[in-house]
Automatic annotation (TrEMBL):
<protein>
    <submittedName>
        <fullName>MutT/NUDIX-like protein</fullName>
    </submittedName>
</protein>
<dbReference type="InterPro" id="IPR015797">
    <property type="entry name" value="NUDIX_hydrolase-like_dom_sf"/>
</dbReference>
<dbReference type="InterPro" id="IPR020476">
    <property type="entry name" value="Nudix_hydrolase"/>
</dbReference>
<dbReference type="Pfam" id="PF00293">
    <property type="entry name" value="NUDIX"/>
</dbReference>
<dbReference type="GO" id="GO:0016787">
    <property type="term" value="F:hydrolase activity"/>
</dbReference>
<keyword id="KW-0378">Hydrolase</keyword>
<dbReference type="InterPro" id="IPR000086">
    <property type="entry name" value="NUDIX_hydrolase_dom"/>
</dbReference>
<feature type="domain" description="Nudix hydrolase">
    <location>
        <begin position="17"/>
        <end position="147"/>
    </location>
</feature>
Length: 155
């Protein structure tokens, strides 16, 4: 399913849903961050996705990380809750979502970077190499908060 992301765009369509999602910012001992390149947008992002009934936000973040990247991780902290009204995601099926993401910090405990149906690229990126990647502003804000030590954040 195709998606279009809007950031503080007055031309963005009006959201019709608000669905809880979780991300996991996984950090290796050398400071490298785990990123995936989304097949639907081509942009690099933190692993994450929609929370299922019966799981906690943290469980969702760990599950989505493994599904999308092949990396098994554990949660070590909370980065923040990100739900700015100006971040709108429109899907090709007519759903228009205001983003609502609980983002956790984690560390890898197993697995290997693996591409899949959602991600056509998975890799560890050192902070000094982030500017060379196409990363949506919403993800840049979350990564920036972590790198500056400005968390937990609640929008």
């Amino acid at each position: 399913m195709a998606r279009t992301e809007y950031w503080n765009d007055p031309k963005a369509p009006k959201p019709n849903t608000l669905i809880p999602a979780s991300n996991l910012l996984v950090v290796r001992d050398d400071g490298a961050l785990l990123l995936q390149r989304r097949r639907d947008t081509g942009q690099w992002a933190l692993p994450g996705g929609v929370q299922d009934i019966g799981e906690s936000p943290a469980q969702c973040a760990v599950r989505e990380c493994e599904e999308e990247t092949g990396i098994i991780a554990e949660v070590t902290g909370l980065l923040g809750v990100y739900s700015p009204p100006g971040h709108v995601v429109a899907y090709s099926d007519g759903e228009i979502r205001q983003a609502y993401e609980v983002t956790y910090i984690g560390r890898p405990v197993g697995g290997e970077p693996t591409v899949n149906e959602e991600a056509d690229g998975v890799r560890w990126v050192l902070p000094e190499d982030l500017d060379s990647l196409d990363i949506h502003v919403s993800m840049r804000i979350q990564i920036g908060d972590f790198l500056r030590g400005e968390y937990p954040r609640v929008d």
